[in-house]
DNA sequence: TACATTTGACCACT
DNA sequence: AGTGGTCAAATGTA
C-alpha cells in the first residue's frame, strides 16, 4: 500500500539498511576504479552503455535510495563523519501528550513545562538544508533567541498534530557559519497521512529532480512498499494519485518484491528490475522500511519562521497557510528544483561518490 | 470565521 | 538563576 505510513520499522533496521548501502557504495567505488572510462567520441545513444556508465547509473540510483532512507525526519538517525548512518534512540515523545489534569480550554497558563528536552532519549535527525521546505506541512508554535547564537530558533510541529495526532516536530535555525543554510532538527515521526502533502511532495521531488540531472528518480518509502517514479513520467501522469499507483511497487512485501516491476531511470527508460536492484544492493530487500516521504521543496527560499519573525505584530501569518514554514499543497512545478540534502553529509553527490569521472 | 504566526509566559532541567 | 522548549492569548490575513 504505497504512501501508507502505519506500522513503523525500528530505526535500527533502517540504520542497518543504510549501512549496507554504504558498503555497497564503497564496493562500487572500488570496482569503478578498475573500469576504463567511457568512450568520449561515440554518442551514448548509439551504442550500448559501457560498464562504467552502468556503474555510474547504479551509483546514482544507490545514492537516491540512500537519500530516501535518510531524507526525512521520519527516520531517526544521524550520519557520522564517515558517512555511516547511526540510529538515535527511539522513544515516545513525552511532549505530545497533554499532562493529566491539564485543561486545554482553560485560559490560565498552566502547562506541562517546557524545558530543555533535547537530547534526552528523543529521536532526532539533524541536517543542514538550504530551505525549510521538506515536503511536510509544519505549523510554527514558537521561537526563541538562543544563547550564543545570532539567529533565533524556530519550533514547528506537524500541522496534523491535532487531527491525526502526528507527533513530528522540528527545530530550525540558520547556520551560523552559513546563514544561507538552515540547521534543521527533526524529532519524532510523522504518523500523519495527508495526500495533499505527501503526494505533491513526490511530484515536487520529481519535478525538482528533473531539473537536477542525474538523480531524477523519486523513491517514496512507505510501510511495506516503495514507490519509485520517474520524474518525467510523473509529470506526464498529471494526477498524483494515479501516478503513484501506477508506479508503485512493493519492496519487502514479497521478499524484495514484485519481480518484474521496473525501476525507471533518469532517462525515462527502464533502469533495472526489482530483482536486479535487489541483487545489486545485496540484502537490502530484507530490511523493513518505515514511512518516509522524500523531502523536496520549492527552490525559492521561504524564510519560514526564522527571519520573518523579526517583524512584529504577527505579520507573517495568514489563514491561507502559505506563510512561514508551510508548504503549499500544490507546489508549482516552476518553483521546484530543490532536493533536501539527505543523510546530512552526503548532500553533495561528488563528495559522496568521490571517483573521477 | 477559520487558521496561522507572533510573542510573552510558564516550566523543567542543568 | 540561566537556558531552552512549549503553551496559549493576541494578532493578522483571506
From TrEMBL:
<dbReference type="InterPro" id="IPR003657">
    <property type="entry name" value="WRKY_dom"/>
</dbReference>
<feature type="region of interest" description="Disordered">
    <location>
        <begin position="290"/>
        <end position="334"/>
    </location>
</feature>
<keyword id="KW-0238">DNA-binding</keyword>
<keyword id="KW-0805">Transcription regulation</keyword>
<dbReference type="InterPro" id="IPR044810">
    <property type="entry name" value="WRKY_plant"/>
</dbReference>
<dbReference type="GO" id="GO:0043565">
    <property type="term" value="F:sequence-specific DNA binding"/>
</dbReference>
<dbReference type="GO" id="GO:0003700">
    <property type="term" value="F:DNA-binding transcription factor activity"/>
</dbReference>
<protein>
    <recommendedName>
        <fullName>WRKY domain-containing protein</fullName>
    </recommendedName>
</protein>
<dbReference type="Pfam" id="PF03106">
    <property type="entry name" value="WRKY"/>
</dbReference>
<feature type="region of interest" description="Disordered">
    <location>
        <begin position="92"/>
        <end position="131"/>
    </location>
</feature>
<feature type="region of interest" description="Disordered">
    <location>
        <begin position="239"/>
        <end position="267"/>
    </location>
</feature>
<keyword id="KW-0539">Nucleus</keyword>
<dbReference type="GO" id="GO:0005634">
    <property type="term" value="C:nucleus"/>
</dbReference>
<feature type="domain" description="WRKY">
    <location>
        <begin position="127"/>
        <end position="195"/>
    </location>
</feature>
<keyword id="KW-0804">Transcription</keyword>
<feature type="compositionally biased region" description="Gly residues">
    <location>
        <begin position="304"/>
        <end position="325"/>
    </location>
</feature>
<feature type="compositionally biased region" description="Basic residues">
    <location>
        <begin position="107"/>
        <end position="125"/>
    </location>
</feature>
<dbReference type="InterPro" id="IPR036576">
    <property type="entry name" value="WRKY_dom_sf"/>
</dbReference>
<feature type="compositionally biased region" description="Low complexity">
    <location>
        <begin position="239"/>
        <end position="252"/>
    </location>
</feature>
